């Protein structure tokens, strides 16, 4: 038997993707988890049956369940952070995380220079921050699009001369960016730390040995390696990163990521491998709306944020505040429309609803004299002007809320609204906290 599960977050991230991937990996004894979008900014929390906990960033969230990891060419990786993550996994009993991991040679590599300028750019924006995880994903992708020959990819890490040349060029490029924003930088410890790294004249003395340490452990492979993985009998899980409402083209510009967060990349990888096995697409959402940092969240409710504190998602130096609202059917409809076909839904954090005195859902918006229950996707999928107009409108919308008689009513409304059955309900972080309907 050959089967794959494609997972996708239908919100702004933080929907519980790691927990769902861990559950699917255990339930179906998945042999591999494939990362098909996003990058090192992921924070996918998994709690094992024994209570061990790890927040997955670059390794697949099925690793503690025994699944191997494959980072596809659509992954934006950070080798230094991956070394640190491997060390934590070893402390949890995973003997050699890299032994069960393969990395496509085409995957983009985030450098410390890209990370530094990413953070400095956000600091220079002051109160007008776009929202960032502060890892450098956006700068890395932007540089690769502007100057493809300069892009650093995983395969470059093993060739010292080419690695040094590309790193030097990228450092020079980011120093040029610094000149355009330096006047707007605040004089604070955050700016000073990033400037010190970016301006360090001895960067090669510590960075090149660190990359050598990485390549001595990592297994770099060609694109055909994934084809061989998909030909193996058994189950493969495609693990999404971030959420579709942050999509680089379909999200609410400019508060988006530099990554395609729909299922487009996963579908492309399957097509390239001529995959003929069973494919099941699962959309994931919390039982309420969340967002980290800047950008529209029409159903946001300060009382709800106080009533549902999230110990794993608090104030973050770069992402800023974690915001909470009532589950938003308008945004879910839009997410489903831009994702396309889904076979089932996973609804997480249902246990948190017990902490609320009442339960509500946002069924539509009030925008002046108009009531809106649908966001129409742009006919041109690359129309960022249209996306900016949606963003402006969402900032002025007022949610129209409807009371619900308990979690079962919420699940029913979500399934009816999206026309997709709820397959998985989650009442906590562990696999044993989940109910599977398939």
TrEMBL record:
What keywords is this UniProt entry annotated with?
Cytoplasm, GTP-binding, Ligase, Magnesium, Metal-binding, Nucleotide-binding, Purine biosynthesis
Q: Which cofactor does this sequence's record say it needs?
A: Mg(2+)
Which InterPro entries does this entry report, sorted A to Z?
A: Adenylosuccinate_synth_dom1, Adenylosuccinate_synth_dom2, Adenylosuccinate_synth_dom3, Adenylosuccinate_synthetase, P-loop_NTPase
* Major localization listed first in the record, in broad terms: cytoplasm
Pathway note: Purine metabolism; AMP biosynthesis via de novo pathway; AMP from IMP: step 1/2
Quote the cellular component terms of the Gene Ontology held in the record.
Answer: cytoplasm
Q: Which GO MF terms does the UniProt record name?
A: adenylosuccinate synthase activity; GTP binding; magnesium ion binding
Binding residues annotated for IMP, in chain numbering: 242, 257
Q: Which Pfam families match?
A: Adenylsucc_synt (PF00709)
Q: What compartments host this protein?
A: Cytoplasm
Q: Which residues form the active site?
A: 14 (proton acceptor), 44 (proton donor)
The answer on whether this UniProt entry bears the keyword Ligase reads yes
**In its UniProt record, which GO terms are filed under biological process?**
'de novo' AMP biosynthetic process; IMP metabolic process
Record-annotated residues binding GTP? 43-45, 349-351, 426-428
Protein family: Belongs to the adenylosuccinate synthetase family.
* The protein's name in its UniProt record: Adenylosuccinate synthetase
Q: What is the lineage of its organism?
A: Bacteria, Bacillati, Chloroflexota, Chloroflexia, Chloroflexales
């Amino acid at each position: 038997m050959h089967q794959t599960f494609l997972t996708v977050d239908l919100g702004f991230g933080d929907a519980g993707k790691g927990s769902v991937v861990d559950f699917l990996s255990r339930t179906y004894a998945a042999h591999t988890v494939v990362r098909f979008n996003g990058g090192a900014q992921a924070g996918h929390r998994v709690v094992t049956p024994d209570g061990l906990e790890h927040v997955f960033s670059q390794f697949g969230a099925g690793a503690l369940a025994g699944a191997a990891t494959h980072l596809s060419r659509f992954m934006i990786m950070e080798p230094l952070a991956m070394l640190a993550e491997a060390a934590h996994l070893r402390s949890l009993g995973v003997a050699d995380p890299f032994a069960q991991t393969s990395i496509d040679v085409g995957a983009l590599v985030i450098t410390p220079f890209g990370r530094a300028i990413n953070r400095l750019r956000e600091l220079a924006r002051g109160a007008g921050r776009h929202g960032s995880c502060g890892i450098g994903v956006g700068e890395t992708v932007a540089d690769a699009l502007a100057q493809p020959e300069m892009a650093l990819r995983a395969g470059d890490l093993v060739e010292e001369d080419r690695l040094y040349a590309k790193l030097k060029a990228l450092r020079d490029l980011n120093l040029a960016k610094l000149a355009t924003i330096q006047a707007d930088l605040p004089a604070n410890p955050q700016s000073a730390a990033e400037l010190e790294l970016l301006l360090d004249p001895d960067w090669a003395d510590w960075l090149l040995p660190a990359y050598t340490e990485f390549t001595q452990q990592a297994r770099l492979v060609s694109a055909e390696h994934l084809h061989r993985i998909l030909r193996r009998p058994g189950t493969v899980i495609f693990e999404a990163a971030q959420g579709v409402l942050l999509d680089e083209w379909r999200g609410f510009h400019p508060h988006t990521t530099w990554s395609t967060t729909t299922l487009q990349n996963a579908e492309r990888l399957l097509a390239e491998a001529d995959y003929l096995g069973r494919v099941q697409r699962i959309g994931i959402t919390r039982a309420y709306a969340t967002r980290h940092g800047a950008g529209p969240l029409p159903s946001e409710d300060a009382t709800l944020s106080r009533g549902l504190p999230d110990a794993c998602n608090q104030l973050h130096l770069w992402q800023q505040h974690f915001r909470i609202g009532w589950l938003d059917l308008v945004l879910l409809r839009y997410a489903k429309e831009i994702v396309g076909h889904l076979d089932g839904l996973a609804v997480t954090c249902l246990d948190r609803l017990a902490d609320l005195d009442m339960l509500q859902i946002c069924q539509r918006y009030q925008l002046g004299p108009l009531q809106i229950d649908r966001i129409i996707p742009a006919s041109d999928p690359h129309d960022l002007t249209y996306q900016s107009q949606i963003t402006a409108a969402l900032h002025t919308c007022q949610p129209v809320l409807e009371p619900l008689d308990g979690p079962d009513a919420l699940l029913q409304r979500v399934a009816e609204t999206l026309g997709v059955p709820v397959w998985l309900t989650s009442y906590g972080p562990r696999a044993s906290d989940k109910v599977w309907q398939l």
